[in-house]
Amino acid sequence: MEQNVFATSQLAQLLTRVAGEQKTRQLFAMIEVDPRLLGPGEARVSRSVLAQAMNMMLFAQNLAAVPEGARYVTEKQAAGEKVLFDHGALRTVDAPRNGALPHGELAFKRILEPLGFAVANVYPLKKLKMTGRAYCHLDLPEVISQFFVSELHVEQFSMNFQIAAERVVHNSRDPLKPEHLSLLAQLSEHHSLSFDDAIILLPALVGCFDVQHEVPHWVDYETLLAESAEMAWISTEGNRFNHATDRVANVIALADDLRSKGYPIKDSVEISGSGAVRQTALRAAMVQRIFLDEKNHPVTRTVPGSFYEFISRDKLPDSKALDLRFDASNAQGIFKMTAAA
Fold this sequence. Notes:
about 350 residues, eight-stranded mixed beta sheet, two-stranded antiparallel ribbon, oxidoreductase
């Protein structure tokens, strides 16, 4: 990033105050940022700038959890290229008892809408007993990365599964305090916040994308895994980014190239019914997580963590606009990246 942009950009100034200068320089070095988001510092921070700051921090958070994704980005930077962040995906649980955390997508609807995002499409993920919602930014839809928020419907599974799922999430915390909810209400009304308020809200927003429940029992994990790899994943990873996605020109050629370099990439590319959206991914990083055994003693097990994805998008027919839609079949295929324990 050029020095003058770093010195004058409100986005850079906001990230520097929250994440530090070194981290901010790293973010700008690896993520492509549209010039429209690099305006000078002003008294108030727009919802677009705040959304971009949050997304950049979440991208880095995902990258830290996926070593092979970090390797890919490092190699891309060495070639003089940056990531075009297309979307991040997260999973939620629609359960009757979810502690202090709003159930399902509502936990994120309350933050995404004030930031300027709106549901563009709803995708039934029937094989997974889930529903996916694509949140696209109203101000800069092709520039600010989308969110694919999936919601798992606990009531559609067996009673044993429902009991295990409730034991996992029934005491979930709400990471947002009343002061944060007040700032979100202001943001929703005015579409901006003061710089000082943005500094307060930004880390709280990033903190929403984490595990909000207590350490799960191993027996519950096994019960969940028998019916839903997705709910088992949620029991250890919570609302963290399931994956972050790089928008690339030719995902099929990239997949072949990465495979030749030994990357653990998906065997096939998922292609939407229209052919306009093509996706593939690196397999999930395997991570060590703590569980409780039958005597409530901590035990460590290796389970699937997050992964890194690639997508290519064509333009809409007779339009210069990108096809920003998703595809339910594609999504269900990509979700399998976390299924192998």
